[in-house]
Amino acid sequence: MDIDFVRNQGLVVDDDNEPAPENVPQKQVIFVGLFDIQRWGFDGINCKAASVPINLSPCFQSGWSWKKKYLMDVFLKMTPYNFFKKVVIKKTFQLLVENKMRLLGGGEFIKYIGIWLMMSTCSGWSQDYFWSSLNFNERKNLCPYNFTPYMSKR
Question: How far apart are CA 114 and CA 108, in angstroms?
Fold first, then answer.
């Protein structure tokens, strides 16, 4: 049906299932450097696709499952916690000392990161709304979270 449409447009259609002359190699293929049983070309088998198992459900390495875990366990699994511990917390504490600010505890820092991750899932509110002293009101204060009980803003 598509071929008839193209022919009706006045175009030539070569549908004899033979390769186009420009796609046929004119020179003899050289097999220098190959072993006796090796040849250049594609035999129709994708070895990578054949060796990788298919239809696997997504999973964590070494069989870890998020089921029956606390949210903190899942959070620690999904974040580069060692990087936070060894690099981010260390550099943050250095900057706090340099600026003569109050130091954070390790758990307090993780809570702070978690709050910022939670805030990043919401759109339409400035940082101030998340630490608002106003009671929740559907018409005036639509921000779904208030982090004042968990941590001060400054």
Answer: 10
Answer yes or no: is pLDDT of 100 > 80: yes
| pTM of the predicted protein model | 0.41
Residue 22 φ/ψ, nearest 5 degrees:
-70, -15
- Which DSSP string corresponds to 7-72? HHTT-----SSPPPGGGS--SPPP-TT--TT--SS--S--HHHHHS--SPPP--GGG---TT--HH
- What is the DSSP code string of 101-115? -PPPPHHHHHHHHHH
- Whole-angstrom distance, CA of residue 153 vs CA of residue 123: 18
Provide the terminal-to-terminal Cα distance of the chain, rounded to the nearest Å: 71
How large is the average pLDDT for residues 73-90?
Answer: 82
Task: Decide if 128 contacts 148 (C-beta within 8 A).
Answer: no
